[in-house]
Design goal:
By secondary structure, this protein is mainly α. 61% of the residues lie in helices and 0% in strands. It has one domain: Up-down Bundle (Four Helix Bundle (Hemerythrin (Met), subunit A)). The longest helix is centred in the middle third of the chain and has 18 residues.
Length: 117
């Protein structure tokens, strides 16, 4: 997950919870149009978390780790789509990766698969 251009650091102050999935998707699209693929992918990850809560498949707990998400989604019909978003989130925040447009498209495809469930 390498970027060919420098991207801004994650936006500080965006609330993690209390937004709808639709709001998170609009944020992702806005960041994408600004070529801020890092924040666009972060917004898709947060949309996944919010969708899990809204559909009551996995109630949101702010303290839930990516590892806990991975264990919880293991029994889902399509865990790979979730794993894509979780792995990207881990790379972003624990590997200090900057994300590319290709990364965004991969994450967006994963989110579309999740929405289709």
């Amino acid at each position: 997950m390498q970027s060919t251009r420098s991207l801004a650091q994650p936006v500080v102050g965006l609330p993690v919870i209390a937004q709808t999935t639709a709001t998170r998707l609009r944020q992702a699209q806005q960041f994408y149009r600004q070529e801020n693929y890092t924040e666009a992918c972060r917004s898709l990850y947060l949309a996944m978390v919010q969708r899990l809560d809204e559909t009551q498949r996995l109630p949101n707990e702010m303290s839930r780790t990516d590892g806990e998400f991975l264990r919880a989604i293991a029994s889902f019909a399509n865990p790979m789509a979730y794993r894509t978003l979780i792995a990207t989130h881990e790379a972003l925040y624990f590997g200090n990766s900057l994300l590319s447009e290709d990364d965004f498209h991969r994450c967006y495809q994963a989110f579309q698969e999740i929405e289709a469930e």
